[in-house]
Task: inverse folding
């Protein structure tokens, strides 16, 4: 493990310890009862749906990398790189997942190509989750303005990303001197690469994959509620999951910690779920989604490191 990588992973382990410490100190009995109330088959289904999410999103990621770089990386190796990025899912905006770029560099995938893929992946995930949140917007007035304003902003950003005016502005600014000019040059390159993934079948295909992937985790959330004897419709459960993840993402808190749980639990209570059950269901859901991904990422990162495949940092692109 490299010097720059070690402190990141130490911070993740500390975050895990603090999170689970807060969980068990806060509502230990309710959480314990919820964990044991879900049968083994139920856990397999819930975790299986999370794994479906990861696999679908990886397939989209691999597609993007091949489109931008023309490089075809063997499935086992590339999927390992993708999963290793999950170790840093608790960084603000999941920006730490760009560590994949350091793994891909050895396969002649440039930083611009991999970071452009990451940008488009996050953009489409945001669009997908906004759409999944629509039912909550119609059912809970307090969230309606937030959801519709966010949706309008995202849809408005899509043509802007293709805008020749924006490209020209960035090109003019990058021709000057200074760090701002250098940053504008990098942004121009990022957007130019990204536009190739935001057109025609690649755009719609990526969006469809996002709908399927995030719906899978939303259905997993509904299964948690069902096993805890809560009568919540599937569509509503998926929408509650969507808006909680959306607010967590836009809060830019590490992994959406705190904000996601607060929204998810609050909406469950507003839907008639007992407060202790709502808290337990929320925590079980986060264990089976966010923390499952983090633990898998840490394990895969360690496995890659043992094979001599730690990410290598290079300033050259």
Result:
């Amino acid at each position: 493990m490299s010097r720059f990588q070690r402190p990141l992973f130490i911070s993740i382990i500390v975050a895990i310890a603090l999170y689970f410490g807060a969980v068990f100190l806060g509502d230990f009995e309710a959480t314990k009862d919820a964990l044991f109330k879900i049968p083994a088959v139920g856990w397999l289904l819930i975790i299986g749906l999370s794994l479906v999410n990861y696999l679908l999103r990886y397939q989209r990621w691999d597609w993007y990398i091949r489109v931008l770089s023309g490089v075809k990386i063997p499935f086992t190796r590339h999927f390992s790189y993708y999963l290793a990025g999950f170790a840093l899912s608790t960084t603000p905006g999941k920006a730490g997942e760009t560590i994949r770029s350091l793994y891909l560099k050895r396969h002649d995938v440039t930083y611009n190509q991999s970071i452009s893929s990451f940008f488009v992946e996050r953009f489409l995930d945001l669009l997908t989750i906004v759409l999944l949140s629509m039912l909550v917007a119609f059912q809970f007035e307090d969230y309606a303005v937030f959801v519709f304003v966010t949706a309008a902003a995202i849809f408005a950003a899509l043509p802007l990303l293709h805008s020749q005016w924006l490209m020209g502005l960035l090109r003019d600014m990058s021709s000057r001197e200074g760090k701002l000019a250098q940053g504008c040059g990098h942004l121009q390159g990022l957007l130019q690469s990204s536009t190739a993934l935001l057109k025609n079948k690649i755009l719609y295909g990526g969006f469809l994959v996002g709908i399927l992937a995030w719906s899978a985790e939303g259905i997993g959330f509904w299964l948690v509620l069902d096993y805890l004897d809560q009568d919540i419709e599937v569509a509503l459960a998926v929408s509650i999951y969507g808006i909680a993840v959306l607010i967590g993402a836009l809060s830019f808190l590490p992994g959406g910690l705190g904000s996601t749980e607060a929204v998810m639990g609050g909406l469950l209570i507003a839907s008639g779920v007992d407060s202790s059950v709502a808290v337990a269901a929320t925590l079980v859901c986060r264990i089976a989604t966010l923390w499952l991904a983090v633990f898998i990422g840490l394990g895969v990162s360690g496995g890659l490191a043992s094979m001599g495949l730690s990410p290598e940092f290079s300033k050259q692109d």
Notes: The two ends are 22 Å apart (CA to CA).
